[in-house]
Amino acid sequence: MLCKVLFKLCQPIYPQVIRLGEFLDVSLHRTDRELLVSCLTRGVSCSQTAMESIPTHREIDALAHFVETARELKGTAYFKEEHRSLSISRREGESDEQMRGKFPDMEIVRSAIVPFRRLWQEREPCNHRKVANILRRYVEEYRDFLEPLEFNDKTALAGQLFEWTRNSGMTPSQVIDLWLNTKHHHTGRDNRAGKYTRDDFERFNKQLGPVRNEFYFLYSLNEVGTWFFNLLICASRYLEILAAQGHKPSFDYCAPEDSRIERSTPGFSPEPDGAPRQRVWRLRRRFHYDGVNRFFEITELPDDRVATLLSKCETFDALTEACRFMFEHTDDFEARFQQDESVNFMTGCLDNNFTVARNRKCRRGFIARRPGAPFLIGEDFLPIVREQYSEFRNAFLKEHFE
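The chain above was modelled as a monomer; its predicted structure follows.
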């Protein structure tokens, strides 16, 4: 029997928590959304005086290239929470060398690597470090703010997760370069360029084993992507400020694709994002809406039905009325749950991180299903799910689905 997954990735843009083993929670980075928003808000009010001078045309173009490419990267399936598949596990009593992995399809990884490489390579004008330096140079508020968010091999979680990553002799940056130089885009170092040869890759692969080697690379990719997306927020806002002052890039980095172009691959392309069922499928796999998604699960509502209800029901209470769901409230959920033998399914929900930040408290709710009887619920279940349903519905109805 498989043990619990040793590592499971959480939200890529603002990662909050990972799990190592069964109970240990470890915070990732200082990428709290409220911190970002407050910094950006201060940046807007101070921007006129904080800028020492105006960036050159080449620097403005570099910012625009970065924003365009980072948005492309963020839009790939690899960095969308609902499509994520990245975990490792082992059976009880087995060694780390016997790890098993669940990784994304290689086509998904390759589609992310193309834009990733443009932001990673030092020679590219939109290299992330060059862009961060431009922001620090011209916007005072970003100088101290960006430092704790910046990807750094010395503090990168990817290099510290397990003893085998700490003792591998390779930093996350080196692992990324190893894979890019020998497995993606290049076949290894030659007389003109490159850092690693295919022999280097084979030695490292033998040292860690194929599962741990690839996991180290994929997680490093994700951690660097987190830094890119936080930098994207800052660069996008600064470009807006510059544009308001009449300083624009030499190209339209926000131009939508020509409406006459239709992209699809027969037998491969999923339903378009605009399809209601596809939107529901994706939202039901996002941690941000975990509470309401658990409710949809316990009530066994299929995606098509949820899509119809979201279109008609403005509130969670309207949805429960339309479905004729009944609830019985109890102040001591645990005791009732233990006593009621008719319960055949029970689940709980927590406020998501952003709700906790807004309300300055964390609520926890429970719901249990009993055949032929009202759902048994704890005190905080309905308040949590009501809020999350509203957010879920707004995301579902959004004109441009994200």
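The longest helix spans residues 210-244.
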